[in-house]
């Protein structure tokens, strides 16, 4: 059911760009419902596993970026969508990095994933009101996006300081530097720069999540191949293909956790969503 949230998120993105905001909101609610039901069902049936937790959290990161990619459809510049998505990814990476040190990372920060989903729903409702009022510019909804961006990045700082984890602080600093460099190079203002930067951060998140489960990195020679191809993509479409390699690595790690690929791996670690 985790995977079922993804088609609904994509439908949300499609109808957002079609300016059919009512349908967009409906599909975002369905996507969120699938995610909630998945966790509840897994706990109720006792079928929680590291494989399921890894897949769930990995798809959540894809959904985070899809949601941010819908923001320009309401008139927000790509720069604000860029800050939204990168801040969300760094927030999740900090949690995964803290878990490497055995630190529980849930419930830290003023703008976690659930809060961001509620916030984007409010943004779209305000955009609908603005459309019905025939306002010349969507200034209120865009201003709200900017304010939420600030809260997301405050959450990044909160987590970096709260965890007291050297790994979290180091990974947060590296990813924040990637964001800053992307902005300084002018890569944060169009869709390719958005996909490239978020793809890199998402890719780093996968590695952090894998390590938080207690496994080694690299898992195999295929990791090195994927890393090399991913870095090469920086000169092609500004790194946007990172998301292709994200899906490949996510699938590879998921199958490994299921024991159907590289079954010789061993490790210990909590399967935290």
Total DSSP helices: 10
- What is the count of structural domains? 1
- Chain-averaged pLDDT: 88
Counting DSSP E segments of at least 2 residues, the number of strands comes to 0
Portion in helices: over 70%
What would you call the structural class? mainly alpha
Order of helices and strands: HHHHHHHHHH
Strand percentage: under 5%
Q: Give the CA-based shape.
A: globular
**Termini distance?**
14 Å
Sheet of most strands: none
InterPro entries: CDP-OH_P_trans, CDP-OH_PTrfase_TM_dom, CDP_ALCOHOL_P_TRANSF_CS
Family: Belongs to the CDP-alcohol phosphatidyltransferase class-I family.
Keywords: Membrane, Transferase, Transmembrane, Transmembrane helix
Transmembrane segments: 20-44, 65-90, 110-129, 141-162, 168-186, 191-208, 228-248
Describe the structure.
The protein has 273 residues and is mostly helical. The protein has one domain (5-258). The chain is 72% helix and 0% strand. The longest helix is centred in the first third of the chain and has 25 residues, at 21-45. It is globular.
């Amino acid at each position: 059911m985790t995977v079922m949230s993804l088609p609904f998120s994509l439908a949300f993105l499609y109808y957002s760009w079609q300016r059919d905001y009512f349908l967009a909101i409906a599909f975002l609610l369905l996507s969120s419902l699938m995610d909630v039901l998945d966790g509840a069902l897994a706990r109720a049936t006792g079928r929680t596993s590291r494989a399921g937790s890894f897949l769930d959290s990995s798809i959540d990161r894809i959904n985070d970026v899809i949601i941010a990619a819908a923001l320009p459809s309401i008139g927000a510049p790509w720069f604000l969508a860029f800050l939204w998505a990168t801040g969300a990814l760094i927030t999740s990476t900090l949690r995964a990095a803290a878990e490497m040190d055995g630190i529980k990372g849930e419930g830290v920060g003023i703008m976690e994933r659930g809060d961001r989903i509620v916030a984007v729903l409010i943004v779209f409702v305000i955009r609908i009101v603005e459309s019905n009022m025939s306002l010349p510019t969507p200034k209120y909804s865009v201003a709200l996006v900017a304010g939420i961006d600030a809260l997301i990045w405050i959450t990044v700082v909160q987590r970096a300081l709260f965890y007291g984890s050297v790994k979290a602080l180091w990974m947060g600093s590296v990813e924040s530097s990637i964001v800053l460099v992307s902005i300084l190079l002018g890569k944060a203002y169009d869709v390719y720069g958005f996909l490239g930067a978020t793809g890199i951060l998402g890719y780093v998140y996968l590695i952090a999540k894998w390590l938080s489960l207690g496994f080694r990195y690299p898992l195999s020679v295929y990791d090195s191949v994927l890393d090399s191809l991913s870095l090469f993509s920086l000169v092609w479409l500004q790194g946007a293909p990172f998301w292709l390699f994200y899906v490949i690595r996510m699938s590879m790690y998921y199958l490994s956790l299921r024991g159907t690929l590289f079954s010789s791996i061993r490790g210990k670690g909590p399967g935290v969503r």
